[in-house]
Amino acid sequence: LLVAGVLWCARLPWFPLHEVVVTHELREVRRSEVEQSLLGRVRGNFFSVNLEGIRQAVEQLPWVRSAEARRQWPSRIELAIEEHAPVAYWGDATGQLVNSHGEVFTATMTAPPPSPIPMLFGPNELTLDMLGYYQQAAELTKPLGRVPQTLTISPRLAVQLKLDDGMVVELGREQPKAPVRERLLRFVEFYPNVLNAVHQRPTVVDMRYPNGFAL
Questions:
Q1: Which helix (H) or strand (E) segment is 114 a member of?
Q2: Any idea what the Cα angle at residue 49 is, between residues 47 and 55, rounded to 5°?
Q3: Can you tell me the distance from the alpha carbon of 77 to that of 80, in angstroms, rounded to the nearest whole number?
Q4: What is the per-residue pLDDT across 57-99, written as a single tens digit (0 to 9) for each?
Q5: Which of 49, 102, 180, 210 is the most exposed place for a label (fewest CB within 10 A)?
C-alpha cells in the first residue's frame, strides 16, 4: 500500500518540470538542436519523466559523444553533454572526423579548427593507433620545421607520412627489430645533411631499408 501510494503521488501534477538546463557551455552543439531533439521527450512530472529517453535523444546529435540526464529538485532536468573533440579528418568521406578517443564520427564543422588538423587514411579499427603514430611523427619532425599533414596505413599496415611541404616519407611496417619510430628518427637525423648535399627537396624519401634510405 505504501509503494502504491508513493507511485500514485508521483504521477500527480504536483511536481511539474519547469526547465531543462545544460550544465556547461557547448562549442559545436546548438541550443536549437537540443530543443529539437527533446520535443515530445520531456513528458510527465519530476518523478515520472523518462531520463533514459532524454539521454538517448540527445546522443543522436552529430557532435554529441555522450550525455547524462539527471533530476535537480524541485523542477529541473540537468543535461551534461560531452562533445566530440575533433583531432583529424578521416579518409575521403565528406564530414567524417576522428575524435581524441580515436573514434570516427560524422559531423560538419561550423568554423575552421583553431589549428590545422591532419588527414588520416587506413582501416577503421586502427584509428587510435594512427593517432599515436601521428602524434609521434609531429613531435619528432619539429626540429625540421615540418608538420605532418597526412598519415596513411595501407591494407598491409605500412605507414606513410606526407609533410606540409608535399614530401612523402615511406616508413613501412612496424617490426620488432626496426620500429617505425627508429626509421623516423633516422630520417630526422640525416635529412638536413642530405638536403644540403643534393641542393633540392626530394619528392619521396623511402626509409624502409635496414641500413639506409632512398630519395
A1: none
A2: 125
A3: 10
A4: 999 999 999 999 999 888 888 999 999 999 999 987 678 999 9
A5: 210
Cell reading at 126: 586502427
pTM score over 0.70 = yes
Chain centroid to Cα 18, Å, comes to: 35
Angle between helix 180-198 and helix 127-140 axes, rounded to 10 deg: 40
Q: Are 134 and 120 in contact (CB under 8 A)?
A: yes
Sign of the CA dihedral running 165, 120, 95, 29: negative
Q: Which residue has the higher pLDDT, 43 or 142?
A: 142
Residue 6 has pLDDT above 60, yes or no: no
The edge-to-edge listing of strands for the beta sheet with 76-83 is 19-22, 76-83, 64-72
Q: Is the dihedral of CA 185, 141, 122, 101 positive or negative?
A: positive
Q: What is the grid cell recorded at 79? A: 543535461
Alpha-helical regions (H) of the chain: 2-10, 31-37, 51-58, 127-140, 180-198
C-alpha Rg value of the chain to the nearest Å: 26
> Hey, what amino acid is at 181?
R
Helical H segments across 73-179, by residue range = 127-140
